[in-house]
């Protein structure tokens, strides 16, 4: 038998996932007998559509959780995967036609696009919140429509500055600047030494939306005010657009067409030395290093993470990705859906799953502060408080169907992309965004 290092690693990962599923099964069976709020319907089967994994160990851990649920309840769960940008349109179509997967695991305020098509999961959310120290405030905003929970915010992806420590040192910086002016100077310096930065400006639901909203909010700009009145056409927004253009001008060419995977690839290929992302770039470099790639081993040692710099508003304006899980009202098995959601969020499952995610995913409730993942690697630390630092999709305004529509239509992202690429002046870009927002918020 030709047992290579790579095949041994794959075998070890598979064995680890199997061991996790086996260790969970006993606890899961006891849970089904004593703690399950909703007994699944006779003959229930479930289908879940989620975004395609970025870290294999996260998927392995999640599938171990799924296997334990099936072993304990007898309910098979088929897990489908799609590209991150494809979940929202598929969920919207399913909600409109009343047919499709029983559950969707999407981004940001997706459930609010069709809140009346989402199962009421208030009792499950209250149980989890009371048992585990309370939900993060942003999780409540994303999960609730009025007084009713329409989804469980199951995790967050901390969108951080990913950078090469050696590159910023070569550019003359000992650490990541904490303010926007210093951050711009770092980007300019990286360009001068031939080790540029770059962030997605294409229709990138995760990384693209994350950085452009940070940029807008850090300068005091907002799409709407607290009463959902459109206020995007403002001096503060113009200042954000000028700042974004200054960044773009010293970035690697081509970012206007980048989606959510381009920055990962460019960073690992040493085409860019600073970008925004979760910690999946670091995990990918570590995985390659474990398979004997010495270049990736050196890169992993050199990678670090930082919070976004603070702009003229004087406080953090980060936009981390919330991942809500919703059940659809057309499902034949609503009790099974609720049972799965509860099982997924019990700490005995949630902790090992997030540990497998290696800080690419972070917790949504207070008890997650003590999960083992946060002591596994000091480079994970900036991801820990994502749920507590993030602003929500509505900015100053509400998180509801209108905010979800503005995100889905890339109103802010398109405005900044048009100004950065020179397709529009800042004033014209603001006016177009204003008209788009007024149609949504009428």
UniProtKB/TrEMBL annotation:
Keyword Transport: yes
Localization per record: Periplasm
Pfam family, one: SBP_bac_8
Record's keyword terms, sorted: Signal, Transport
Cleaved signal peptide residues: 1-32
GO cellular component: periplasmic space
Entry-linked InterPro entries: Bact_solute-bd_prot1, SBP, TAT_signal
Domain of life of the source: Bacteria
SUPFAM superfamilies: Periplasmic binding protein-like II
Family of the protein in this entry: Belongs to the bacterial solute-binding protein 1 family.
Name of the protein this chain belongs to: Carbohydrate ABC transporter substrate-binding protein, CUT1 family
Taxonomic lineage of the native organism: Bacteria, Pseudomonadati, Pseudomonadota, Alphaproteobacteria, Rhodobacterales
